[in-house]
């Protein structure tokens, strides 16, 4: 640029001097006046030079606008290519953007920094929440946390003067909100005084609940609401952004008032701490280990596991559990779809460039440099990718809604949205896609000279070995990338089908279920709870069409979160002193529960009204439990220590019943049953067997229960078939979603090989005509084209199998009854991919066989 400026200035100076000499000679004026007039005639050298700089400084804007207009016109003339390329890119960019939004909300959450959840770890694979004893000890002795709080999430009844409803309540301490740095937008926060036993009951409420039921956020302060039948005063409203705290989407947050403990258990508190400045997680673990050592001797009579440790776990690990692996797996699958889409569009762009080679060569002959052509072609790629991104953002918004719907239990996923970060990511993916889409035509542009296109046309260029190799490589890549997605989807489908066929251990037909939480304010004792059910059950059994009704504290087949798991020790086979005891689901039931669900008694006897615990506690066990702990048989009469309480009476096994799964259909069916008469619980599940459709009696069941107490919320009724379907909803949704992307990948791969062979047939039309003129049959031509396509498909599939064997390792622990290298599944998806390849090859092959030899030979 500086050299050009000097040359321009020198040339202008020469013109000015020549003009000044001419003016001086003809007008007889002085040299100074002649020079002035010459400069005026040229508009002033300075202004001319500045205009020249301005023109060169803005010229690239003009060129870019011209290229964009030309690219748009060119793509509009070839609408079929443009629409297909934009649609393919929109699917890839949209899916990637949706997953980015989900990952950004769930995994890249700044709220997780410096926060830990403290667990009671019994073994490397077994951990539980804290007891009141644990939390009080940490609160008094810890030196690692700047803030510490506790949370007890539960189902509660709520009423603001109208019909009671079931809600999620998060009983929390003041330190819980300080640790999370969450403050009310109206009213005041909870205080230590609110946590004192006997203090007035107060609560915070969510912004959504205040707007819906309390007349607005500002008007909610001071309102009296009923939480579990107890009047609570609303003292604060949380911000609208605080929809979910520590994975709990509660609408009421009463102050947690802890009673003085009488034993080490039960374990139900979720403790959250914010690490103090300079404190690492390892330092906090050492601090808590010291507290564990000092605490054990004080409660050793009821807690025998000396090796149990208070363990700080980063919030990201504690909350996400399997969600992180699932999201990463899904993100990898979507990235593969995007790469397949880019490879597909790159192949289309390569064919388009070959078809335009005469035009590009003519531009070169007329003076356009390769970099000028490069910019023109890259602009087309950018325009395509930009249109794909615009449509992809809409696809991403829809995809994000689907993701939120299929994984409702994933922390913070409901907060995901297509914000500025997501749109910026979509634009970045579009730019990257544009570069990848344009790279093959650009490389071909730099390897060809101008004369090729003018002399031989598109067939001379497209038939070259390098261009054929490029198109073949794209096809192989698409098949290699499609197979891992198909393998993952196939394994998940196989796993889901096995899970769906799994026997839950009972007869779910004609069973209505209701989750019922009695308000603690009205049912504070076991006697009052028992009185409610002793009145309600006979009324339910008198409903026409009802054949039986039973109660249980756990809802099969997936009630892991109920907390009714208990540790135990066998008197005949005790664990070593100080080591972890086994645990199992421990539902409390009445005798009618077994007959209602069709659970058979295999040995011993059922519960009777006199089984009330006290000095002679009894239990029933499942067949799987009996086989594991007493494989030699003779289970009835064996005794165990319940809950680690060595000072409590020994518990006796009085019977064995058939297996029922409580922790999921993919988990073991071990269970221990305690009698409800030993201690009535407020949160119970009602099971009603009917002679007809259970939905027909649902309203009557609610009426009978309301006749006993109209303030009990009854808004969670469902058939047992619906409960079973809900228990496997998440694997079903993930399988369907990944299956959809596998189908998209399969379609794109088929489109790739179809496009490649279609172009090859057009490019080799004259050669095929000559072959047929010399005697080649139509079957021979079909075989030649199909073999060519299958060669690429087999090569891509072989690479894909190797990639799939590595990719499916990510499914370890997520499959039921299927290994990550299940040979039948991998063989099935491989065969499916090859069959689709054969179908995609068949149409171009038939077109080749239909070529008229005479017309083909006349070409060119």
Describe the overall structure.
The chain is of the alpha+beta class and 860 residues long. Helices cover 53% and strands 15% of the residues. It is built from 26 helices and 23 strands. The strands form 3 sheets. Strands 1, 2, 3, 4, 5, 6, 7, 8, 9, 10 and 11 form an 11-stranded mixed beta sheet that branches. Strands 14, 15, 16, 17, 18, 19, 20 and 21 form an 8-stranded mixed beta sheet that branches. Strands 13-22-12-23 form a 4-stranded antiparallel beta sheet. About 3% of the residues have low confidence.
Briefly say what this structure is.
Helices cover 53% and strands 15% of the residues. By secondary structure, it is an alpha+beta fold.
Overall pLDDT level:
84
- Shape field: globular
Enumerate how many helices there are, as a single number.
26
Give the N-terminus to C-terminus distance in angstroms: 47 Å
Q: Structural class per helix/strand content?
A: alpha+beta
Name its key features.
single chain; 860 residues; alpha+beta; eleven-stranded mixed β-sheet; eight-stranded mixed β-sheet; 23 strands; 15% strand
Helices and strands, with pairings:
Layout: H1 2-27, H2 31-41, H3 45-77, H4 79-106, E1 115-123, E2 126-128, H5 132-141, E3 145-159, E4 165-172, H6 174-180, E5 186-187, E6 202-205, H7 207-213, H8 217-220, E7 224-227, E8 230-237, E9 252-254, E10 270-275, H9 281-295, E11 309-314, H10 315-320, H11 322-355, H12 357-365, H13 370-406, H14 420-447, H15 450-462, H16 465-500, E12 511-517, H17 526-541, E13 546-552, E14 565-570, E15 583-585, E16 588-589, H18 592-597, E17 601-604, E18 618-622, H19 623-629, E19 639-642, E20 651-657, E21 672-675, E22 683-690, H20 698-708, E23 717-719, H21 720-727, H22 729-763, H23 765-773, H24 778-807, H25 823-849, H26 853-858
Parallel strand pairs: 6-8, 16-21, 18-20
Antiparallel strand pairs: 1-2, 1-10, 1-11, 3-4, 3-7, 3-10, 5-8, 6-9, 7-8, 12-22, 12-23, 13-22, 14-15, 14-19, 17-20, 18-21, 19-20
């Amino acid at each position: 640029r500086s050299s050009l400026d000097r040359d321009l200035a020198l040339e202008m100076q020469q013109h000015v001097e020549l003009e000044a000499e001419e003016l001086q000679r003809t007008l007889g004026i002085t040299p100074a006046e002649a020079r002035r007039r010459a400069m005026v005639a040229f508009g002033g050298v300075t202004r001319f030079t500045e205009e020249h700089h301005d023109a060169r400084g803005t010229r690239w804007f003009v060129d870019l606008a011209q290229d964009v207009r030309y690219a748009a016109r060119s793509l509009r003339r070839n609408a079929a290519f443009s629409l297909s390329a934009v649609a393919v890119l929109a699917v890839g960019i949209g899916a990637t953007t949706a997953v980015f939004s989900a990952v950004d909300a769930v995994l890249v959450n700044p709220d997780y920094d410096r926060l830990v959840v403290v667990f009671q770890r019994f073994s490397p694979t077994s951990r539980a929440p804290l007891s009141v004893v644990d939390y009080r000890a940490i609160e008094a002795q810890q030196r690692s946390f700047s803030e510490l709080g506790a949370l007890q999430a539960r189902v509660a009844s709520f009423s603001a003067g109208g019909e009671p409803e079931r809600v999620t309540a998060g009983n929390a301490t003041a330190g819980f909100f300080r640790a999370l740095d969450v403050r009310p937008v109206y009213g005041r926060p909870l205080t230590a005084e609110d946590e004192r036993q006997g203090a007035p009951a107060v609560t915070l409420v969510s912004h959504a609940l205040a707007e819906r039921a309390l007349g607005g956020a500002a008007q909610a302060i001071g309102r009296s609401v009923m939480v579990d039948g107890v009047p609570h005063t609303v003292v604060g409203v949380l911000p609208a952004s605080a929809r979910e705290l520590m994975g709990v989407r509660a609408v009421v947050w009463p102050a947690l008032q802890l009673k003085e403990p009488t034993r080490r258990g039960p374990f139900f508190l979720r403790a959250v701490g914010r690490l103090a400045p300079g404190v690492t997680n390892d330092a906090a673990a050492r601090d808590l280990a010291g507290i564990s050592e000092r605490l054990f001797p004080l409660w050793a009579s009821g807690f025998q596991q000396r090796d149990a440790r208070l363990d700080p776990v980063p919030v990201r690990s504690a909350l996400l559990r399997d969600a992180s692996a699932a999201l990463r797996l899904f993100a990898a699958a979507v990235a593969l779809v995007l790469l397949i889409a880019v490879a597909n569009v790159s192949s289309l762009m390569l064919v388009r460039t070959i078809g335009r080679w005469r035009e590009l060569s003519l531009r070169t002959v007329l003076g356009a440099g390769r970099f000028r052509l490069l910019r023109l072609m890259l602009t087309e790629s950018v325009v395509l990718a930009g249109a794909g991104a615009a449509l992809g953002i809409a696809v991403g918004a829809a995809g994000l809604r689907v993701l939120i719907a299929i994984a409702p239990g994933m922390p913070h996923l409901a907060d995901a949205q297509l914000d500025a970060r997501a749109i910026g990511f979509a634009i970045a993916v579009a730019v990257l896609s544009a570069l990848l889409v344009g790279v093959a035509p650009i490389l071909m542009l730099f390897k060809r000279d101008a004369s090729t296109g003018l002399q031989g046309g598109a067939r001379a260029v497209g038939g070259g070995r390098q261009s054929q190799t490029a198109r073949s490589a794209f096809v192989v890549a698409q098949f290699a990338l499609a197979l891992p997605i198909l393998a993952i989807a196939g394994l998940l489908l196989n796993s889901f089908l096995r899970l769906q066929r799994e026997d839950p251990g009972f007869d779910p037909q004609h069973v209505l279920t209701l989750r019922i939480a009695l308000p603690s304010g009205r049912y504070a004792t076991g006697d009052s709870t028992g009185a409610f059910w002793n009145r309600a059950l006979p009324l339910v059994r008198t409903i026409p069409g009802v054949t039986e009704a039973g109660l249980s504290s756990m809802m099969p087949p997936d009630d892991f979160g109920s907390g009714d798991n208990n540790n135990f020790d066998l008197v005949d086979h005790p664990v070593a002193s100080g080591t972890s005891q086994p645990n199992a689901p421990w539902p409390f039931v009445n005798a009618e529960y077994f007959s209602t669900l069709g659970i058979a008694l295999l040995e011993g006897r059922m519960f009777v009204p006199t089984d009330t615990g006290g000095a002679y506690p009894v239990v029933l066990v499942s067949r799987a439990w009996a086989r594991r702990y007493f494989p030699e048989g003779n289970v009835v009469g064996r005794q165990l220590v319940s809950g680690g309480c060595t000072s409590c009476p020994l518990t006796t096994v009085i019977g064995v019943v058939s297996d029922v799964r409580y922790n999921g259909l993919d988990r073991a069916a071990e269970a221990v049953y305690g009698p409800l008469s030993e201690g009535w619980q407020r949160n119970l599940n009602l099971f009603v067997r009917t002679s007809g459709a259970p939905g027909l009696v649902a309203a009557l069941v609610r009426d009978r229960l309301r006749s006993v107490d109209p303030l009990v919320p009854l808004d969670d009724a469902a058939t047992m078939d619906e409960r079973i379907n809900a228990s496997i909803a998440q694997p079903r949704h993930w399988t369907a979603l990944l299956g959809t992307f596998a189908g998209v990948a399969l379609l794109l791969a088929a489109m790739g090989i179809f496009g490649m062979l279609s172009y090859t047939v057009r490019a080799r039309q004259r050669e095929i005509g000559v072959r047929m003129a010399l005697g080649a049959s139509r079957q021979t031509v079909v075989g030649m084209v199909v073999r060519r396509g299958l060669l690429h498909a087999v090569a891509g599939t072989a690479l894909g199998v190797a990639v799939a064997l590595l990719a499916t390792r990510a499914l370890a622990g997520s499959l039921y009854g299927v290994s990550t290298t299940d040979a039948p599944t991998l063989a099935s998806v491989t065969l499916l991919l090859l069959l689709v390849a054969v179908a995609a090859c068949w149409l171009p092959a038939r077109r080749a066989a239909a070529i008229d030899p005479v017309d083909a030979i006349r070409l060119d």
